Amino acid sequence: MNHRLLRSILFCLNLSLLFSSSQVPRSTLIHIPPESPSHEGEPVYIRCMVEGEIPVNQARLFHRTVGQASYLEVIMNFEAGYWLGVIPSIHVKSEGIEYLLVIDLADGSVLGYPDEDPFKSPFLLSVLPEKREGRAFIEGRKDQGKSLQEADILIISPEEDQVVYSDELLVVVSLFNVKRVDVSSIKLFIDDLDVTPQSTVSTDIVTYSPESIQSGYHVAKIQLRDVYGVYLNPVSWSFFVVERKVKIVSPIEEFSYSGNARTDFSFDKVGGEVLGIAQTTAYLKGGWPWLSFRGDLRLTTEESLLKQPKNRYSLDLRSEQKFIIQLGDFTPVLSPYTINGKRVRGYGIDVNLNWIRFQLVNGELERDVQGDPENVDDIYQVTNIKLDTTSQGDLIPIYYLDRLGYTFRRFVQAYRFSLNYRNRYRLGLNFQKTKDEPWSINRDVDNAKFYIPNWENYISIVGIDSGIYTFSKFKEAITGVASYELPSKEWGGNNPQDNIVFGFDMGMSFDNQRLIFDVAWAMSLLNKNIWPGTLTKTQLDTILDDSTDGFLAGIYDLDDIIEPADIKDLLVVNQFLVPLIPIDPYLYEESRFAAIINMPSSAFHFKMRTYYYNNFLQIRYSQIGPEFYSLPNPYFPQNIREFNITDRIRLLHNKLSISLSYQHRNNRIIQSVKDPYSQNTFNTSFSLFPGVGLPSFTFNFQSIGRTNNKTELDTIEYTDNVVYEDFREDSRTRNSLFSINIPIHGQKTKQNLSLSFNFMAVTDLLEDMRLDGSSNNVESRSYGLAFSSRYSIPLQTSFNLFRYTIELPPIVTGEEVIENKTQITNLMYNAIYNLWANRLTLRGGVSYLTVKGTSKYVNYGLNGGVDYKIKESLSSRCSILVKVKESGNKFELGTFALKFSANYVF
Amino acid sequence: MNCIINNCFFLLVTIELLWILLFPSLSLGREKVAVTTKVRGIAELKSYGKKSFSPVKPPTVLFDKDNIRTGANGFLIIAYLDDKSQLKIKENTDLEIRGTRSREGISKIVDLTAGILKVEIPKERKGDFVISTPISVASVKGTVFYMVSDPVIGDQVFGIEGIIELKNLISGKTIQVLANQTGTSLRNGSLNVSITNPSNIPLFEGEEEIEIKELRIKLENIDGEEKEIIIQYR
After folding, report:
1. Residue A166's domain spans which residues?
2. Can you tell me the ipTM of this complex?
3. What pLDDT, on a 0 to 100 scale, did the predictor assign at position A525?
């Protein structure tokens, strides 16, 4: 049986629970797919459970939009027995989401989902087009470095720099010349304050008429997108407001501030594991119209010097959007191939004069972690005991120790310089340097515990007694008896690394942004071990070949190469540098173009986007070499070549949306790759939204073909037998989704019924050729029903039914064939009732979950909660969840979760 | 009898459907063409199809065929949605706003029964702009001008910028009014142009912007270096 493929399929289909029965792992990750189809612009909640005795250190969710190269990281929270990660709405796009889970366990092991190479083969989640009702403008999408289409917005009142009386301000914006505006996306801001709710908004005109406005300088901004989801360039303009009687405002009077403080406490007990977390977050923002600040603070009981920081401290100073300084923890985004959303503790500067922009990031990417001294053998390990002769000629035992369990402090510096000519031509240059600090880790940790083995197993002369020692006790114990060797560098843990990435990106747009070209390229140099320091030119001569010929690898004249010591501050050059030779010299002889394009340490993409005849057509080609490393972007997949073409069409006055896409992916970037895979994905989506109040339908179909074109079995020859391994891969996956949404509006009630059906089948096309004739075919089906009601009284209820069935190849043990089918059924009923003019909210619900098949158990759940708004600025929330597990007529408390939070706004 | 009623019913339905299909703009709602941005004193609006006037407040969206009138102390500013052309309407003025949407913008017609207007049309104008009075028609090419219309005596056009083509509907004559010229179109059919007497240009008391005055104080040090303090005030 092809174990590799089967394991991959099993995990892809969330059956690690079943898999655990055969592999008997100490912990198992159970991924719970989202229960209802995800819609564009809505957050997606990803849950998973970890079953086992080993505590979880950290659970992380990595996600990206289909077509993107790098992942964004979300720390999952433990809530009510589940690990929950939320993919923010801003990242939920109709292209679909790829995500994966990584669970770090306390014993240092890691669980992943999907099991096989999750970063290269993440789980694909289809995303339906945006719901037509209640759509919201997605803040942030507009500023993701993309040049937006210019909107022909006409500012009627007040005009730029106009002076108006404070009681006569009238903001009037005409959208007459903007075609196909999505009214629900329109947002009007005055000094970054969203005044849309107080405005009158229509497809033609937006008006805002406050009774009064504070005197001074003000900035108005309007944001919108069209019905195709295209975000148009926001328009900002400024004006002055004066009182009818002039009053000189002092800076103190002009100063304003606001803030929020929130504290959360959660207590979870799942099985034998208890987790209690307290967290306090607060922010304070304020300033003057010309200079503002915002400080954020997060303190959590999860903070520990044994891990990367969980607390957050940040301060943001900005003068409009032209000059920004960020201090403390912040998440800079410079370019897709350099730092792109990873947290940094340090400072950042952004000077943006529209046509020219400079960004700087400098700070700590990872702090130094010495290791856990209480965890035996985490920091030190005895690797050997040998005898050595002292100066007096006596033989004494020498204990050889190694230093482990550490994480180096890692610093990053990143720079970006960009030019922008009227959003038509853009050019950006990027440079980034990341380096570990070897000296950040202490060689001696006196309280670190480690195990001393019995000397009799190594030497013939008496050493010290075996047992657990601290490092200081160990040094005392060996005094006069033995000696020890502990190197000051080149330890057994991680090696310190040095990395630089440089590149550019450029873009052009034509025909009023209807035709856009984007190109980005970057190249990396990574030294995987800087312990040995920098080599000299002479040493370089014999790195790749033995002849001292004055040439590197017999090709590059060393006289033409700069002395490595001269650039040691920029990059440490030694034998661990990847790549030592960026371009394949032999391929370069054959084809210079191919050699440059396929440099294993480079990454690039080319994208063309057009918008004509109601069609969004996007063609993207990208390639990331197998040796491209960007340390601040650790989840960047490598060794991927991808071609993607997507067309989205809107018909029948935008009521019908059709999306077609094709993607080809392989890893044939370098010629030496063995058994390259090839994956073709076709995706089709039809959505019909006849109008508000009418039923809507969606159908998605996806077909994935994956093969490695391998035709032969691998053989492993032992002395007495030959073992065949089947690594051939040729599978076809079909995934279809149908959903219908029916609004039912009565006189006193508003109800909504959603039905969804999902079918997925993986077919092993080599089934007939497998050695043992086994089948790796897998089928899964899921049905979902959601019925929500909103009544004339302040009551809301929801009923959810979800059934998931998966059928795997039967398990064959000797003569016995066991059916391998699992069915999960989940029913939930929840209600919310508001009292005292919404000051008090009561929540409650029941749930029932049954699992049939290889595992059999039932969960009965009860939840409740209270939200109480003590006063307008102070509110609190309390919730409780209890789940009882029935397994084999035995009842036990499965989950108990208690949460409390208080929120104060000022 | 039933058969006749049924036939009549179907005939009516068919006519109604044809009407909707052939003349959608007539059957469906009227189009938005402009918005009021400032009102002082008495200014009233009568929407098309309604019988009475009601006070207008900014911002009120104006539709095709809406009727506007100002009282003795009234003043009103209207901006068009396509190119921000502005109509500043003085007291005792009565007019109807008409506009037809097209790909180029809004074709604007102001039926001025009587009163005084100031028209400001940006250089990037979209669509035609015509002011029609019982006596004259003024076609505008992109300009600023004042128009005074008296249904008994006639019309006066004071050109400030650009060109206005003025036609006397009684005589059929047409002239061009340039900057600093005054075109006069009278009920007797006469039409002529003369140099504008600035004192004849109507004053729009309510339209002035808030003026920021400036006070500059020059300072000089012993080396002869000059610095200037600028104080802006109202």
Report:
1. 141-248
2. 0.76
3. 95
